[in-house]
Amino acid sequence: MSNVDPKKRAIILIDMARDFVEEGGFIANAGGAEYREAARGIIAPLQKVLAAARKAGVTVIFSTDEHTPEDLELKKWPPHSMKGTKWAEIMPELGPEEGDLVLPKTTYSGFLSSDIEKQLKDRGIESVYMTGLHTDCCCRHTSGDLFQRGYDIVWITDALQAFTQEAHEAGLEYYKTYYATDNDRQFQTSDEVVADLSKAAIAA
Questions:
Q1: What letter would DSSP give residue 108?
Q2: How far is CA 191 from CA 117, 126, 188, in A?
Q3: Domains along the chain with CATH numbers
Q4: What is the predicted pLDDT for the residue at 2?
Q5: Is the overall model pTM greater than 0.85, yes or no?
Q6: I need a labelling partner for 10 at 20 to 30 A (CA). Which of 116, 155, 162, 189 fits?
């Protein structure tokens, strides 16, 4: 993304809520201790990227489940990340901070249940960093909606995770098969993204 103005970039954090990470949350408990450790493991890379993104003027978007009992998704899954409970809160290590966008969703992709599309258009966003939980589900559906609307996507590989490492890797392979056009550029680590953002901030 080096040639894209940072102000035309956004970073989307999918489902970085307490329910998905902390013991006691439905999703976190369903995944088990190994999953909880892996989910918490992406917080440090996200913190680095968020600091660089905010400094460079990149739009930070939290697209996170905030369910009500009537939501269609709860026909498939038991109640989780319920609106008005602590479990729908964003992990405090990540924010939100002033200027960030918090766009609660009730579907796998926020494009179906929030105004994320309008927010991106209003800000002239062209490129998106994809992060969060889970690589093979909500991140995948959001990526599909971004791809089919013409956004350039960079997947930050160590800032994404799924219930298992195998599911995470399968999600990445799906992106490569159906969405990516330049794997070397579109799949980056958090350190690579931070380095790119630092250069972009200096050039801006």
A1: S
A2: 28, 22, 8
A3: 10-203 (3.40.50.850)
A4: 65
A5: yes
A6: 162
